[in-house]
Amino acid sequence: MEKHVSTAAALTDAELTLIDRYWRAANYLSVGQIYLLANPLLREPLKSEHIKPRLLGHWGTTPGLNFIYAHLNRLIRARDLDVIYICGPGHGGPGMVANTYLEGTYSEIYPDISEDAEGMRRLFRQFSFPGGIPSHAAPETPGSIHEGGELGYALVHAYGAAFDNPDLTVACIVGDGEAETGPLAASWHSNKFLNPARDGAVLPILHLNGYKIANPTILGRAGDDDLRRLFEGYGYEPLFVTGHEPRDMHQQMAATLDRVFERIREIQEQARSGKSTAGCPRWPMIVLRSPKGWTGPKEVDGKKVEDFWRAHQVPVSNCRGNEGHRKILEDWMRGYDPEDLFGADGRLKPELRALAPAGKRRMGANPHANGGLLRKELAVPDIRDYAVDIGKRGSVVAQSTEILGHYLRDTMKLNAKAANFRIFGPDETESNRLGSVFDVTDRVWMEDIEPYDVHLSRDGRVMEVLSEHLCQGWLEGYLLTGRHGLFSCYEAFIHIIDSMFNQHAKWLKVTRELEWRKPISSLNYLLTSHVWRQDHNGFSHQDPGFVDLVANKKADIVRIYLPPDANSLLWVGDHCLRTYDRVNVIVAGKQPEPQWLSMDEAVKHCEAGIGIWHWASNEEDTISPDLVMACAGDVPTMETLAAVDLLRKAIPELKIRTVNVVDLLALQSRDQHPHGLADEAFDAIFTADKPVIFAYHGYPYLIHRLTYKRANHENIHVRGFVEEGTTTTPFDMTVLNELDRYHLAIEAIERVPGLKEKAKDALAAFRGKLAEHHNYVREHGEDMPEVRNWTWPAA
Amino acid sequence: MEKHVSTAAALTDAELTLIDRYWRAANYLSVGQIYLLANPLLREPLKSEHIKPRLLGHWGTTPGLNFIYAHLNRLIRARDLDVIYICGPGHGGPGMVANTYLEGTYSEIYPDISEDAEGMRRLFRQFSFPGGIPSHAAPETPGSIHEGGELGYALVHAYGAAFDNPDLTVACIVGDGEAETGPLAASWHSNKFLNPARDGAVLPILHLNGYKIANPTILGRAGDDDLRRLFEGYGYEPLFVTGHEPRDMHQQMAATLDRVFERIREIQEQARSGKSTAGCPRWPMIVLRSPKGWTGPKEVDGKKVEDFWRAHQVPVSNCRGNEGHRKILEDWMRGYDPEDLFGADGRLKPELRALAPAGKRRMGANPHANGGLLRKELAVPDIRDYAVDIGKRGSVVAQSTEILGHYLRDTMKLNAKAANFRIFGPDETESNRLGSVFDVTDRVWMEDIEPYDVHLSRDGRVMEVLSEHLCQGWLEGYLLTGRHGLFSCYEAFIHIIDSMFNQHAKWLKVTRELEWRKPISSLNYLLTSHVWRQDHNGFSHQDPGFVDLVANKKADIVRIYLPPDANSLLWVGDHCLRTYDRVNVIVAGKQPEPQWLSMDEAVKHCEAGIGIWHWASNEEDTISPDLVMACAGDVPTMETLAAVDLLRKAIPELKIRTVNVVDLLALQSRDQHPHGLADEAFDAIFTADKPVIFAYHGYPYLIHRLTYKRANHENIHVRGFVEEGTTTTPFDMTVLNELDRYHLAIEAIERVPGLKEKAKDALAAFRGKLAEHHNYVREHGEDMPEVRNWTWPAA
């Protein structure tokens, strides 16, 4: 395998000159955006007032991004390719904007930024300017599906976009800073999950400019030999483009891209001809070594700038106040020779404009990068076909996620032809009881498959890898390009992707404000193997705090559901899969649990989001109860019902109302969340003055935070997970956190005015039960029979 | 480079037989822990009642872990090595417990689990049993610094432990499941930061058993050739140990470990002799391919178990109820020949016990794995030496983190000889204004150093890599082995390590309950480049939610500080560095900001955690004010003071109290947090009934959550970050989120009963200012002069 591709005559002299001019135009526009308020074409000498008062933007990575963009344009035109561009170094926002402006996309979307001198002035001014556009590639940037914020997710987004898009090539630029992150280091292994017969291609371009903010980078300083071995080890064929002299670099890049797209075509043809389905092809990737701040000032104030980290942001900083600096900027910009690039009217010269692809082939206009344009509704079956017949209430035991698995299996089947639905998870689909989907599909796997392997195939639609980062990133890429999916995960470990969730929620918030960005499917989490049933894995696996993070995001973006049983999970799962532009979090157990609601009841209850369970209440109609027992989450619901049962048997005259919450954000005030209950409705459920014992699935503080504006808030007493846990029995987990039936019943007695004295015997009995439990589990290693075998009493 | 090390005569026959017996003993004890309640030595046929009712544990990885442990014991004895064992596959808890029991450490720490038949019975029974020990390697496990929970951090912990421990070798077992995670994939690059002259060695052992829960693994299925290239690419010398036949495997492993420790010695001697300081040495690492569930049942119920994922947890499951299953278990355990391993009294036979190292050389007793034993107090300078002279209040401008940088520089200097303090950060030490530390140290870097590089050296004590995961993991490993450190990070991106923080906080919670675990230094975060000053990077860089996650943890573990200026940051930073067994989060800006408190005032204020700023209040002593203006965080403090200034000028008769909060958890009730103010103290500050306008740095809900129990809670009106942001000016960021001086002043007027009508003109003026601001920034690209130039008025 050779290191550098032979560059003989990849481009004619004329072609080379044209592509170099195009590149210079992009570089010119990039610098202009960072610096200029006015005088965009340098028709007059640069003056202080032409310079922005605050210089915000990143030059360092930009010329390399522009170089790649120009060369991809050539290939797209030459081969009529369908390509999108993922800009890992998101700081290179000026480059992305410059290129989409040059190709015309920008002005089509934002007519105000027209293709003339005045448009160019506005283009420059708006960049990183109040009321303008962000400094990074962002939702506002045409052609982007990748926010240039947090680093690490470019490549995994690229793979997500390529799955089930056989004609698409996703060019993915990975900066050498980003390449140091964990998620990116794992993302290279995504090639083991991409099937050339049905998926598109990903072309990773590792863009090494050698430096991050103030340091060299690991891969930038590594030798070619180590890099070659590293990427061969990851399963790629690395091709190197190295240098700084533009003409030589153009020839190298053109030849390398020709070779790369040849190779991609070969791999795809071979796979699609049915000639070979064996193993994981060795896809090409490019290592592009070019100077940081390429073509920018070599030195400023006697300090090295080009090809060093000082070129990272604004290479010459005081152009408004310092004439010498301003001169450096002017020389730099004039060095691109704007008269050679733009006509008298400020438009890009026609021979250069002709280098950009046309219509949807332009990377800024490719509909894959505005996935809502391509999104087809997911076909879903009728949830009633999967309903659990609950018989006598609480007597039937079912595994909620298993029931949902049947629904997902048929959803998978209904959309098999459309090939636009996948399920993602870190090796836990079966463990999370969604195994029914394997009746109709497999796990995708491109490495060797052994005869004894189970449900592994090249064509599987279940994506399993022991990396929550990859699951999340693939799914994001898949959704952003207009498809559908579900991510099932152990509840505790979803925190691994907290920051990715953050970034995606931010993306959605901004896209909802952009009319031209069309809605995409919601990002759906099924969090299972949850805190209360991690009794076997212990404390490290017990954390219900992801929803706290979610609740911080903009209300229109997020929903949190805690279905108490299988039929309600069916409603919630189905509902979430049909929504768009949201993040839906569903928390539901996978263990056998009693079933409470018929399908009709579940539909009604879930649609309301919150409601009184009259069958579990003994208050008389329209009379205020003595006590409200509220719950959210499957285990808390069971413990609450068991507590209600205990209380009713011990103190029959106590009037108890039982309330269940499915849609957690319904607890919030209506002015805080669109699903929030109106105050009257809330008071009608929780009363205005009675004690509420609230058994909640997660950290109790969230309930206080959601309800602090409610009239009865000071009577709401919440129990939840308080960071007590270990390897023990399921019931002992609730006891350790004082969320169990006995603690709930005891608190109920203590909170109802005057009851404590009257119900002394019951109090003593419940306390006795806690002591009995303590001894029993430590002796027998399992829960007391009366706990294990408890069922809701017949009416 | 050869693939397999020649195995000729690494072990004599006698040695081989002994080590194999030792391994069998560990395997026997591992199986016993998973399955048995009684009959530990199989002195009678296995009966139903000998089996645990719930079988919780993981067999699959355990025999391999035991194999490695036994062989490391041999090397430790032969070469008198100082080695700790990091068990990446934390599920292998039974193996870690078995080995520390065999070497005697376990019984020394837990005398109840004695080295005899009764002790063995208790050892078995306690495992994964209520009131017993967790199923994973955990704080309870001797010799462990690594919780076996979330996967991905074994190798980064190993490197953290090795830094500045020149005589230590950290053997780090990485499972092939874990190897799929992002953080682990990046961790291999830690070799670029380890200096053989001053640091210890890390020996990574990639333990490929081929499967995770229900799937093959990426590296397990990869060919040797790809693996070799991958790890060579990462900069290692990979050595392979492959097979399943025990005798052959023992010889391979022994020979390979001999070679590995030779090579480690060579590298260290060369570096320490001063002969070579060039480049990054090619450290050896081992790829151990052994079957999953090695030596366990080959098949159960006709299905492949050994060497397949079905061996992951409990390979034969129904041993209590199914006689056939019980027979498989009994045959399996008897296959290890317990009579050959344990004497009549149940003790390990003396010739086997002699294979374990003695005293502190035992990996379970190595003090590095109980870092508090080795921890020396950090030497710190007097903060008064760095105090900012504030002159006229609010007139001096300083960058808080820069001032802290001076203190850190001298702390670094004072501990240079002890070599037990490092600073960690993702390429942001300089950007976060801590650059003074480079007066006395550099960034560590083992790849090539160019003449024009700045503050890069082999001996630097600042660790910079563009991976929050690596920074966090290195620091954790460094702290867990008894040293000190600080992690400075952009506030938004600290969410990347949310889950690592979770796991570390859980570790601390449990270790505090174990008398034999000695306190370690706190994990200190300095979050800067915070939400209000990410105006230049935009929305993706704006997130203050990490503290919400932190506040969910056990109160004794966590502290959150929001110092309003440089002197208070000095107090807080100094305080945090001197605490132990905690996680301290400090949020402080790096931009020039007005200074409010003299050092004396800062000390008093920070020690109280919360207080009235009388100099900024105009209430008369002992008289209740009309209004409380509260703030937490530097930018909110400035906006609050500016609002107070506006209000006092516009409505001189309004009696305003100004309150500042440094120690956020002081807001909580005393029964919820040890720093919580007593209710009377809280009421004395916030009043029982006056409106409180609270300007908070982060998401406003947190303040409600912390104060919901307080008498005056319903009058507390919080403003904070509400997910509105973009690239704009600093002041515009506060306006977008309605945390600016004008919004604060307007709300104050609206909330004080009867004031709205009286202060109509002021209201109109403030609203006018908001409109004026809106237009001004969009025209000029910077904030209005009256905003930029505002200063606190002279007294």
From TrEMBL, chains A, B:
Cofactor(s) annotated in UniProt: thiamine diphosphate
Keyword set includes Lyase: yes
Xylulose 5-phosphate/Fructose 6-phosphate phosphoketolase N-terminal domain: residues covered: 11-373
EC number: 4.1.2.-
Domain of life: Bacteria
Domain Xylulose 5-phosphate/Fructose 6-phosphate phosphoketolase C-terminal as annotated: residue spans: 590-792
A GO biological process held by the record: carbohydrate metabolic process
Keyword Hydrolase: no
Molecular functions (GO terms): aldehyde-lyase activity
Keywords (A to Z) from UniProt: Lyase, Thiamine pyrophosphate
HAMAP family: Phosphoketolase (MF_01403)
Family: Belongs to the XFP family.
Name of the protein in question: Probable phosphoketolase
Species this chain originates from: Rhizobium aethiopicum
